[in-house]
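One-letter codes give the sequence; backbone shape is given numerically. An example follows:

. . .
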Amino acid sequence: MNTSAALDPGELTAYRRFSRSEWAALRASTPLSLSADDIEGLRGVAEQFSLTEVADIMLPLSRLLNLQVAAARGLGVVQDTFLGRPVVAPPYIIGIAGSVAVGKSTFARVLRAALSRWPDHPRVELITTDGFLHPTTVLESRGLMQRKGFPESYDLRRMIAFLSAVKAGEAEVSAPVYSHLTYDIVPDRAQVVRRPDILIFEGLNVLQPSAGAPLLASDFFDFSVYVDAEEDDIAEWYRQRFLLLQRTAFQRPESYFHHFRDLPEGEARAMASKIWDAINLPNLRENILPTRERARLVLRKGADHRVQEVRLRRM
């Protein structure tokens, strides 16, 4: 079963669809301000992202977002003027969602770099929802270690409080820091956000509803992106990443997955498939994929990691 491919008829009419070439043409005269070295430094483990991808996909998106930010600031001026308050532009918040291993983290880092090159909003911050996972001790006490990444594994109250404070323009707002090496929250460390022009908020669960919750993370978003691909492709990307990590990060004694370091390649690949089938695939089908139609923009990737189609929600 592959549930990532099809959109229902109602969803199709809600979006304008662009081929890769049609979307690339919307770049207009937006200059390419990132170099190959920049991309190399931003690319994640086992993820591909080229200057062509920046030119064809990222630059049209950064142009659209630059226009959106300007329009949002104009609306803010209208409201502040109406209320007789000093004009203060709140941060423009962009949510980025998608499956484990689909490439959303690299996409978010490259988007941050591209947006920060625009002179009107040079202060762009990136926060991932990993920092809002409950610590391992809490997950273990609640029997949730095999549900890591599912909605119940996150401190949603703290996440909402963070977004609310950022949107309210507080001078400094702190987010917890997560280590993929130790697979846990890092004690006594925080990432501090200081009134950015734009905040990119990336993670599995950023578009998920929460039954009975008065506020959702997406309530604070001005724009949202869902990075999409076929299930089979994402599963293969996950296996490739696992094998690469086994040769690198898993070799370090402090790695949570250090015990996998010496598995023969066939066994390592089988273990990656087992983890995908038991945890990541059910989470994708039950919690992540159903949020796709809530995104303003859907980027559909092919097996080669290149975006093949863009869907932009009609206003």
